[in-house]
Design brief:
2 domains, 10 strands, globular, two-stranded antiparallel sheet
Length: 150
């Protein structure tokens, strides 16, 4: 879920979802933006529409991740940021969220269900009505010994 605010480096950042987001370019051309990290005001702004088209919840969430990464890099002192690096990190974080297993991996991100269960686990959950344990769960040797003592 996209937060309305969060803290980085002791500063509170606000997140605003806007109907649309535009920026005037160097040649007075209008640029429609998915998102913007406003470091002067500690704000992340995200557009709900681009060129009149409604953005999907997945696009909005990925935009939040992207702008959050800009905010995090700025917070640790990276004034100049390589956009390719931020896009690469955004894609890696998104892949992690989509494929992580266990814990709270099945996350709802502002309406985007990140269902990380394999088809086999999903069927097991439906059949039992509960959370199925992962089939490949590893137990360390110390945990095996502790379980035998119980």
């Amino acid at each position: 879920m996209i937060p309305t605010s969060f803290k980085l480096g002791g500063n509170t950042w606000r997140v605003r979802l806007l109907k649309h987001l535009v920026q005037i370019g160097a040649n007075n051309d209008v640029q429609h933006l998915y998102g913007l990290c406003d470091v002067e005001n500690n704000a992340i702004k995200i557009a709900r529409t681009i060129d009149g088209r409604v953005c999907s919840e997945e696009t909005i969430y990925k935009t939040f991740i992207h702008e959050f990464l800009h905010a995090a890099l700025y917070t640790i002192g990276k004034q100049y940021q390589d956009e390719e690096l931020v896009i690469g990190l955004e894609n890696m974080v998104w892949q992690y969220l989509r494929t992580a297993r266990g814990g709270q991996a099945a996350t709802v991100a502002n309406g985007v269900q990140l269902d990380n269960d394999s088809p086999k686990r999903a069927r097991a959950k439906r059949a039992t009505g509960s959370k199925a344990q992962p089939a490949n769960r590893r137990i360390s040797p110390t945990n095996k010994a502790a379980r035998k003592r119980r």
